[in-house]
């Protein structure tokens, strides 16, 4: 089944993506014909049972992994034919990461980490720019701290400042609040929301948490490597965490 959710044009367009893993004679269709369009300036959450293909989808969308077939376009850049070097340049210039496994460089200060992707992409940056970005996540006074001197939540906020400063076409987050307490998790979501509402960024978040998904404009549900359901995205206002939890429970039962 191919399911297309959302508008025809967008910051991210995924068409008929497939990805199969074969390990020790065992085959898994991690992505089984996923089509998804994420409009610019929106916040989309991806939910689904464990093993449904969420991380694989996110990794393919940002060029960290390659699908077996299908097409991915991010803000006009078609990833399909890009070589390793092209993909690396694409990631540096066009995507902001808030991933647990793609975190801050330990030897650099918060300010240096914040401007790192922009510098790697060849853009000149100033300390003032870094301080402004850190100010946006309430961490201006921590600019000269190194990651080990920051809490987990503060590190996530530096990752968000970094993601926003680089002006990427797409900000992707994998369980951005997973390791955080309620208050810090809420702050991280406030900052991601502000990146969309104040800076017009496009955000894609994978989460298991209905209250996190409820902060999105739209929730896309996956099961068995396919997009099987969606909620929101029609501009009708706040999503309801209870409704999201009910849909998730339905997927986990099947
Ligand atoms: N490198 C790999 N080798 C073999 N199988 C893999 C690999 N990566 C993922 N898979 C399999 O592909 C399927 C989808 O995995 P994926 O990590 O995308 O799911 P997920 O929805 O993100 O799960 P979770 O919520 O548990 O993180 C799973 O069955 C998983 O075991």
From TrEMBL:
Residues 12-249 form the ABC transporter domain. Pfam families: ABC_tran. SMART domains: AAA. PROSITE patterns: ABC_TRANSPORTER_1 (PS00211), ABC_TRANSPORTER_2 (PS50893). Keywords: ATP-binding, Nucleotide-binding, Transport. It comes from the Bacteria. CDD domains: ABC_MJ0796_LolCDE_FtsE. InterPro entries: AAA+_ATPase (IPR003593), ABC_transporter-like_ATP-bd (IPR003439), ABC_transporter-like_CS (IPR017871), ABC_transpr_LolD-like (IPR015854), MacB-like_ATP-bd (IPR017911), P-loop_NTPase (IPR027417). GO terms for molecular function: ATP binding. PANTHER family: ABC TRANSPORTER RELATED (PTHR24220:SF685), IMPORT ATP-BINDING PROTEIN (PTHR24220). This is ABC transporter ATP-binding protein. The lineage of its organism: Bacteria, Bacillati, Actinomycetota, Actinomycetes, Streptosporangiales.
